[in-house]
Amino acid sequence: MQLRLQHILLGLLAGVFFWALDSELQTALPLDAHGQFGVSVLGTVFFATALAMLGEIGWRKAFGAAALIAIPVALLGWWASLGYSPTESLAGFMPFEMLALAVLATLPMPFAMAVARGGGLAWNDYPALFLHAWNIVVRYAAACIFLGMVWLVLYLSARLLESVDLDFLRQLLRQKLFAFSVSGGILGLGLAVVTELEEMISPTLILRLLRLLLPPVLLVAVIFVAGFIARRGQVSLIGFSQIETLLAMAVAAVTLISIGVERDDHSAVRARVLRLSAQGLALALPVLVGAAAWTGWQSVTAQGWTPGRVAQAVLIVLLAGYALGYAGSVLLGRGWMARLRRINIAMAGVLFLAALAWLTPVLDANAIAARSQLALYRDGRITAGALPLYALKNQWGLAGQSAYSELEAQAGDDRALATALARLRPSADGGEGDSAARAQLRRDLVLPPGATPPEDALLDAIRARAPEVASGLCASGEGAAANCALIEADFLKDVPGDEAMVLLHLPDRDAIYVLRQSDGAWDSIGWGSVVDAQGEPRFRVDLAPVIAAIKRGEMKVVPSGIMSLEAGGLRLLPLSR
């Protein structure tokens, strides 16, 4: 009972903390946005790690270890945030920094728990580290499921009481302080119960099931390697989804191999087919990582670095360490499992250092990306319209803004660059400047042959919904492929009037926006989705050939439950619902 009370109280405190973050209390602190971000990271990491370790090592050691983890991580988060202009949504501009902070917060926990229970030398105890790491995953997963079930019961209870004119529970659930506090307490209770029933709720069953994936994943990897060799290293590029698929498969392979060798030889896979599958996957892993590196390098040489591509490169280097270590362990013969476990501990340290470097000037992805784009433009390898001006100014932190300022200084002698920059600047008078921007966007948008030019209200709605178009993205040089298209049609039969589907082929991603007209104004109603000719969903797609097909008139509006656009071998749906 004492353990449960400790978890519930800590969960309640965590809930109150997150309520304070969500309310105006945080803004009352004498801190700027950077300081508030640091406080947010401090509390989040402290409560998350303390709850994870409390049941294993007691509250004193758990609080001490959580503080030792949270304080440096919060300071690093605050330092990394200084590379961005202070705004209320600072975390939204730092996706990769947030991932690095998560790595720094979670990776030390198994080591801290092993040392707390086994002494200073236990940091190298692989069986203990393996068990602690997977126990944390299983406990949090089970506690979150419990939290979801409790909230479902509360919601249904509130609806039931409403049926007899008793509204107090619904009103109580709408109070944020109550919702956050109860959620924290329930999560803490769930973690406590799962910890008490450690023998019944353990990761063993999950790990045993995941081992069964080794043979099919090996089969896919072998087929890919054979095809990769047959095509002499040529990998088809479909947008940027190919490298993401390769990296995901490589991560899955590392995870499955680690699960296969388990914490010691006694617990590792024994069935011959599973053991051979683990060894074969370890030998195929270098080819998967090599293909990902080759695909990523092709993207970088063609379009330069972006923060996302820098993150991919870091992940490729990390996976290369696993791949070489795993393959070498297998090739050296007997004792390969023990060697592989040593590699896992060493790579955990490398991963920690990589996350640390990302949050310091040692690895400034925004600066790398900004310098790369400037170099590409100055070398004449990309046009002014292809420069990610919006991202430089608004998304790549102070380094991007500095590069943007350099381009502004250069624009006096560069008419194309001056035109691209002018599109990004908001109109001061709201009159002639807006008219010029609308006229330029009307010229840049690809329309089907014979289509009526879009009205001013629609152009204004597009500029508001997709600010990227203001950076000159839609402008294409002579002979270059178009980047933006607009289709007006009655896609949604249950919605009065026509809808507008806007297709954008961005430097680092593609997007489909859908707008509808209501009372003379155009409003955004969501994103478009894509399926291929067989009706299978496509989550990442290159819209360049679709835009080219629209420009040639090779398109038609066809029914798909709702009306959709068919062009370039793909079918684009205006709304997933």
From TrEMBL:
It comes from the Bacteria. The keyword Membrane applies. Keywords: Membrane, Transmembrane, Transmembrane helix. The chain crosses the membrane at residues 37-55, 62-81, 93-116, 137-157, 177-197, 209-230, 236-261, 273-294, 314-333, 345-363. This is DUF4153 domain-containing protein. It comes from Thioclava nitratireducens.
